[in-house]
Amino acid sequence: MATEAAMKIEGADLVRQIIEYDGQIKQKVIQIYDHIKLFIASKEFIGTDVEDEIKTEFGNILDDIEKQKEKVMIDECPIVIAGETSAGKSSFINLILGKDILPSQLLSCTTTICRLRNSENVGIAVTDEDDKKINIDVNYVDDKDFRLQLKKYVSRTSDHENYKYVDISLPIPLLKSHTLIIDTPGIGTSPELNNRLLDFLPNAMAFIYIINSSNAGGLQGDRLLKIFESQNDRVKRTRMQEFDTRTTIFVCNKWDQVPEEEEEDVMSFICSVLKDSWPNLNVEGQIYKLSVKKIKKSVIEQASEKCESISKELYTYLNKKETTDRMFKFSVHEYPTGRYQWFIKEKAKDLILGRINAETREWCRMNMVENINLELQAILQESFSKVHSEMEEGRKDLSEFEVTLDKRYSFDKSIRDRNFLDDFEDTVLSWPILPIAFPLSFVITAVLAPLLIPLVIKDY
Ligand SMILES: Nc1nc2c(ncn2[C@@H]2O[C@H](COP(=O)(O)OP(=O)(O)O)[C@@H](O)[C@H]2O)c(=O)[nH]1
Ligand SMILES: [Mg+2]
After folding, report:
1. CB contact at 8 A, 234 and 241
2. Helix, coil or strand: residue 84
3. Which residues contact 328 (CB under 8 A, 6 or more apart)?
4. CB 277 near ligand 1, within 6 Å
5. Nearest to residue 154, comparing CAs of 100, 88, 102, 199?
6. Gap from CA of 273 to ligand 2 centroid (Å)
7. How far apart are CA 122 and CA 24, in angstroms?
8. Scanning 5, 422, 445, 451, which has the fewest C-beta atoms within 10 Å of its C-beta?
9. Does residue 189's CB lie within 6 angstroms of at least one atom of ligand 1?
10. pLDDT tens, 83-139?
11. pLDDT per residue over 149-170, tens digit each?
């Protein structure tokens, strides 16, 4: 539908803005890393004993900084969709992308990590256990055909070996500007897949965790705790990044299967499990009820209703006397000529079809067929404006941060008079929790939330 498409593009534009903004921050952070490297390497400021002290305390900090710099320069923004097997992860991704490309079936669950990227060129690449990447020759005819081609590489029922990653490139406007959507094998599918998933999770910029509400009793808090721990491990390993638990959205899918009289109990059960296993959970802003099935059904119904009414109105318009008079009035020089009757007939057909097309286009333009449901767009704009204000907050943080930076890292004389280690501890080690670490991932999640709003269950 035009509105949904517009919303998605708008969401994508916002993500693009955020990523551009993130790019500016990254440049700053890289500058700081370079400054620090220079500072540490410079014997002018640090004597060998301080250098040794740094080594004992922090290990090979120059190497760490270099690695961290490389990480910062990666400009992709991965949004990981995780959850239990058959909770509806693949169906959910298909829904938000508006493309039925990921296989979603009860019997052939996803067994690889699937990364979806926007690209002009359609392609699939698989990475095997030995990290060898193989490009697969595919073409896109329609969603179903693509899904069938893809199924061979992502599902267990296939004869193919298990791949580590399947990379899918398609023109997907929602994912322009380096956003990646990642479909994952269900938690609990097998110990081996669990480990692979947990290893992969620290790459996530934001999370969407899909819960199977029809089996809410099976929701296991300890699995969530494991996810949280695996994310937090990164903090311990790298000492330089912090996982923000607010960047997770919990989607209670299959809500259509929850009996009405149990809805309240199911919701409070899910909330209590999540509260116990997910630190700083904000029930209002992080938990959504959803039924992919109902949304799909209603989208199809609405679309076909709309198509029906449009085609009726268009039919009436084309059959009106003024229209037919205009359509079929030809001047003599337009009359088709030729040697053979069949040739004249073909030319006449083209001429008439051309006129019908022109009238149809004009009717669509006058009736703004591409702009239906403007009021829905307005609702969405409102949600986006909230996100914008978050960004403004982030900008303020950044400018404050810049002032601090200039004060601390300009290589002026005053820095020599300072106790370097104190300075080091309270600035460098606090980078991970600098305000700048927060806005991007948080805002990305905030962008995804409005995308969900039109999909979320209000009242059944
Ligand atoms: N009733 C119902 N079924 C759903 C819903 N969402 C997905 N399913 C079905 O659940 C099954 C598993 O979905 P899938 O997306 O493959 O789950 P995944 O393993 O988490 O990726 C499929 O048969 C879907 O059609 C929903 O909201 N309601
Ligand atoms: Mg799946």
Report:
1. yes
2. strand
3. 352, 355
4. no
5. 102
6. 23
7. 30
8. 422
9. no
10. 888 899 999 888 888 788 998 876 656 678 899 998 889 999 999 888 899 999 898
11. 988 888 765 555 678 889 999 9
